[in-house]
Write a structure and sequence with these properties.
Order of helices and strands: HHHHEE
Shape: globular
Distance between the termini: 38 Å
Radius of gyration: 14 Å
Number of domains: 1
Largest sheet: 2 strands, antiparallel
CATH superfamily: Winged helix-like DNA-binding domain superfamily/Winged helix DNA-binding domain
Helix content: 40-55%
Number of strands: 2
CATH topology: Arc Repressor Mutant, subunit A
Number of helices: 4
Strand content: 5-15%
CATH class: Mainly Alpha
Strand order of the largest sheet: 1-2
Structural class: mainly alpha
C-alpha cells in the first residue's frame, strides 16, 4: 500500500463545467477512492500543495476535503494530514 500519492494532482480529472471546482474535485476524489486509485489509508497532499498543483484556491481544496471528511470518505487529524478512510464494502443482499 502506498502511504501517499505524490503525483496526486496530475492524476485527477476535474470536470468543473456546470458543477463548480469544489464539486468537481469532490467527485474526482470519490471516483479515485471507488476505483481503487486511492487505497484506504493513503495520505493526501496538503490543501496548499494540491491547490497549487491544480491551479485552484486553497479554500476550494480545504472545503472539498472537509465535506468528504463529513461524508466519511476521508479522515483528518491535526498533525497527521488527510487520509482516505477505511470503508467497508457495500452490503449485498441476496434475492429471496
Amino acid at each position: 500500500m502506498t502511504d501517499s500519492w505524490a503525483t496526486f494532482g496530475a492524476d485527477l480529472h476535474l470536470e468543473p463545467v456546470g458543477q463548480g471546482l469544489r464539486s468537481g474535485l469532490m467527485e474526482a476524489l470519490r471516483e479515485a477512492v471507488r476505483t481503487g486509485r486511492l487505497a484506504p489509508g493513503t495520505r493526501l497532499p496538503s490543501s496548499r500543495a494540491l491547490a497549487a498543483d491544480l491551479g485552484v484556491a486553497r479554500n476550494t481544496v480545504a472545503d472539498a476535503y472537509a465535506e468528504l471528511v463529513a461524508e466519511g470518505w476521508l479522515t483528518a487529524r491535526q498533525g497527521s494530514g488527510t487520509r482516505v478512510a477505511q470503508r467497508s464494502a457495500p452490503r449485498r443482499t441476496d434475492p429471496a
